């Protein structure tokens, strides 16, 4: 992990480490962040742990709009992190982009 001159911005890995349609969890400044590479090559990032029972969100199925926790199938919106079921809570959504072949995330 490398910091960039912009405050709160870090490089967490290489885009080439994620195939299209894959995801992976990274530890960034003590936080677990899941990064998802869409089939169109764009990136999304959220907390890596489901607020319901700690499920590994990076292992869940996802599409352009949401990630589904593999443990109990709760879905979280990539736009705002909200869960589609009431009472579960939400996940943090992080700004993420590919820059020079690197995955860059804003904390």
From TrEMBL:
GO molecular function terms listed in the Swiss-Prot or TrEMBL record: 2 iron, 2 sulfur cluster binding; metal ion binding; monooxygenase activity; oxidoreductase activity, acting on paired donors, with incorporation or reduction of molecular oxygen
One Pfam entry name: Rieske
UniProt keyword list: 2Fe-2S, Iron, Iron-sulfur, Metal-binding
Superkingdom as given in the UniProt entry: Bacteria
Xref: CDD domains: Rieske (cd03467)
Named cofactor requirement(s): [2Fe-2S] cluster
Annotated signal sequence range: none
Domain Rieske: 10-105
Stated family: Belongs to the bacterial ring-hydroxylating dioxygenase ferredoxin component family.
Annotated PANTHER family: FERREDOXIN-RELATED, RIESKE DOMAIN-CONTAINING PROTEIN
Protein's UniProt name: Nitrite reductase small subunit
Name of encoding gene: nasE
